[in-house]
Amino acid sequence: MENSEGVKIESTVVTEEPLISALDIALFVVIITVAYFWYFKRDKQSSSSEKKPYTIQPSSLSSIEQTSNSSFIKKLKSTGRSLVVFYGSQTGTAEEFAGRIAKEGARYKMKGMVADPEECDMADLVEMKEIQKSLAIFCIATYGEGDPTDNAMDFYEWLQNGDADLEGLNYAVFGLGNKTYEHYNEIAIYIDQRLEELGATRVHEIGLGDDDANIEDDFVSWKEKLWESVCSHYGIEETGEESNIRQYKLVDCSEVLPERIFSGEISRLKSYENQRFPFDVKNPYLSKIAVNRELHKSGDRSCMHIEFDIDGSKMRYDTGDHVAVYPKNSSELVDKIGELLNADLDAVFSLLNTDEESSKKHPFPCPCTYRTALTYYLDITSNPRTHIMKELIEYASDPKDQEKLKLMASSTPEGKKEFHEWILRDNRNIVHILEDLPSVKPDLDHLCELLPRLQCRYYSISSSPKVYPKSIHITAVLVNYTTPTNRVNKGVATNLLAQLIPTNDELPQPTIPIYIRRSQFRLPPKSQAPIIMIGPGTGLAPFRGFIQERDYARKEGREIGEMVLYFGCRKKDEDFIYENELQEYVANGTLTKLHLAFSRDQPEKKYVTHLLEQNADELWNIIGEKSGHLYVCGDARSMAKDVHSIIVKVVMEKGQMTNSQALNYVKKMEQQKRYSADVWS
Question: Where is the chain membrane-spanning (predicted)?
């Protein structure tokens, strides 16, 4: 037989009656089992009852959705707001503009909210019509080769692939772009047109900001006309109330334990002490500087070759990618702010959003010291925008300083002229303003709220992972220049990098936070494809990686196509960077031709564009007859534009085409990824 637990019991023959019969044993086991289950079930229920207040037990999927933070519509409704301003931002400018619009909404009885589309369910736009006199504004930057910013990518794809009925949605769009790039404000223009196609109502015409000129002026001019259109559309009037309301409130954190205080981390507390893969914009890798050497042979300028050690990080990069470097401001400038404002830079504080519904609780990692905020989190070297001038007015005790700030904050022709000359032309940063307007003494916490975030700097990677899998190389010119006020402005990142010199002893090596940004700037899939590379100055950087990769393939016995490089600099004996490497690649056959232009080694200046025009036959042979690839890296404002014009001209003449046909041919090359540019302005 078997007992209640399924264990087989064998019978035995005995000569005496047992004290306890088999039936007694069975009954005993049953009683014990029942008692066991009754006791532990009761205990489990009791435990569950005690823990109930600390657990979330959704009754259905819909209840989860109802409490989701991604529903901006519910936030608008629950807080009595009618204005939402979305931003697509890569460097923080679009986010800043969005905040300024939302803040000004109060002057028109439109309580506003700033929203990151990446954190929102953008399908909820169809419900905007349920809110009376509602308005959605989009501040959208175009990034890279006509791409949406990272945080706007999902929204962009939703617009492309969806067919939502947006009738009843009122909207306006402001785009942030740069005219030196081919795809000027492409994403903002698309969003503006697509919203209308889906049935939404455009309240005000799209604004296009040009960062190559004066994007602040573009934005302010558009914003003023925006509110005129809003008043007309909704039949409302400006209240006249000033909107200088603090978005964040100061919290004293002097009692916070040291281990809970941020010291420069981008997102996660102690992330540099406890590194975790994967590494990205919010979680950079603290890389050691393995090599830092000078590339220029003489002269008063400096160009650095720097190698970041990524051994053991699990980071992978491809030839043509970019590396982002997180800089920090100089201690000299930081100390100067503390001195000018008579502030204790080592006081620990936090800035807490006064809008409890906002997903952004702090403007930067908090709590931290003022010194940390000014060193790692805030941009103190760029030209402040007009809204900062406006906020500083109340802190000026001298009437003359007050009037100057009021003028620069205004949108009058005189005000714009003064702002352009005194701030932009003279290249003043916040430190210079506080020095030159000595009666202006803002509260340091308010200044920290106003200043934009310090952004990482991107560099084209100048190495190939095939040859250097454990390190990332960059080529960077040290930035130092004298302003019209006889001050020396220094590049934040390059001057920091110049100080990070590795040692040969057992001392800790210098480190800096980095992460890899993927690029579309790629070698052809087939190593046999012929290519032309045009990269004067540090524009050579990605091509050094290209050449290394093709050289690696050649040494493996693979066939490689023609590689033609156009390089230019001022003087051969001064700033011909990587000269020995390039000559070696020519000697071993990896680099088919090396065309050099030294602009100041002869009376008449000679540039790579001159060489391109001289070598029209070679150019057409590769991009026309052999369907090769052409790459450009460097200055977008003049060099890249000149190269494009020359390419079109060569295609016209050698390909026997009209101007229109040549333009279409070059456009098709771009679409086929046979004409690629990695440029900056």
Answer: 20-39
